Amino acid sequence: xxxxxxxxxxxxxxxxxxxxxxxxxxxxxxxxxxxxxxxxxxxxxxxxxxxxxxxxxxxxxxxxxxxxxxxxxxxxxxxx
Length: 80
Known about the structure:
By secondary structure, the protein is mainly α. It has helices spanning 30-53, 56-79. The chain contains two helices and no strands.
């Protein structure tokens, strides 16, 4: 068991910074990733609407195209 040092203030014992979190300003591709996410969301919504109301085959292709955009965004996030 470690003895307690009463001379050191309590707040100096705490770790500095947040682990696992990056500053949003340090990500240079954040805007591009946001655009890819918006495209994915729009294609997903349109694909589901087309799937339900018009044609299931065309709706499936639209959703798959949206998933392609999402996979690109995920690869960019993992590779940086």
